[in-house]
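Protocol step 4 of 5: obtain the predicted structure for the target chain.
Materials: sequence only (see below). No template structures provided, no constraints applied. The aim of this step is simply to have a reference model before the mutagenesis design in step 5. Sequence pasted as it appears in the construct record:
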Amino acid sequence: MPATIEPIEFHGQPALRLATASGARAVVALHGAQVLSWAPPGGEERLYLSPKAVFDGHSAVRGGIPVCFPQFADLGPLPAHGFARNRRWSLTTERSGKDFALAGLTLADDEATRALWPYAFSAELSILIEDSRLDLELEITNTGDEAFEFTAALHTYLAVREVEESRIEGLHGFSYRDKTDADRIQRDSGDALVIESETDRVYHEVSRPLLLREYHRSLGVNADGFPDVVVWNPWIERSAAIADLPDDGFRRMLCIEAAAARQPVRVQPGESWWGRQTLVAL
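Step 4 output (structure tokens):
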């Protein structure tokens, strides 16, 4: 049986369900082009979606993989994480075969985006599921007549059994900006990063794949085109203060995000930039 891509409603909002013959599946909302669910063959969910997430077609959805563009976090004058995650994207590409399903969604500038960020652009997010792999590729094209700069991220919320028992391997030796310590630049010297308190780090120029280890499973995380890696967990006090996250939500999630955050990306008229994040269930 070939893979399928079908329109559905998810919490009352338009979405797509991708499924392969091997049992991989994903749900992608048109609001924000946001992947809300991904399970490799075997059916175990690998993305965290808050049970208190708001699905009103306007607000950012807590969990899954929000697209941050044209601003990451508060690194600029726009609302945090930009506007792409709060906009309705259009389905423009559907391809499937026996072992894969691919959907492409696009967003272009309009009067509302130009009121916030006065540039002409086209953004495309391609979502591919294949066997135990999820690929997301974000391409930004400058469709105007002047250069622009942006920061961006794929704000990936990974589902974990217990965050305290999870280990991120592969960050040894890389420098990072620690938002929980007055943005001080530090160097990671441990064999693995273990989350034991609030964590908000932007690792710079990460050049090798990462591995998230849990009790009984692992997840490979690789980025191409995105130079930075963000690791975030709000921990106890911050989690309790976030309205759309349960008080104990921090225990079930860990964000490992492909990002272009340290240095803005500059795109000339008529040119494009792309970045990719790949998750592989092991």
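Step 4 remarks: The chain has one domain: 4-281. Residues 205 and 282 are 25 Å apart (CA to CA).
Proceed to step 5.
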